[in-house]
Design goal:
With 53 residues, this protein is mainly α. It is built from two helices and no strands. The chain has helices spanning 2-14, 18-51.
């Protein structure tokens, strides 16, 4: 219960709305997905180069 109260208090005092928090979380998730995709592509290219393709 203390955690929920602290969370709600911090959201209220920060001035951010729920949609602001959702937008921020969405941006972080998109950046992480892009990073994972780029890393995967680099590994695939390195493997193809090592195999002689």
């Amino acid at each position: 219960m203390k955690f929920v109260f602290a969370f709600m208090l911090s959201m209220t005092l920060s001035g951010c709305t729920a949609s602001d928090w959702i937008d921020a979380a969405g941006g972080i998730m998109q950046a992480q997905d892009k990073h994972e995709k780029d890393s995967r592509n680099k590994r695939i290219k390195a493997a193809n180069k090592a195999a002689g393709y």
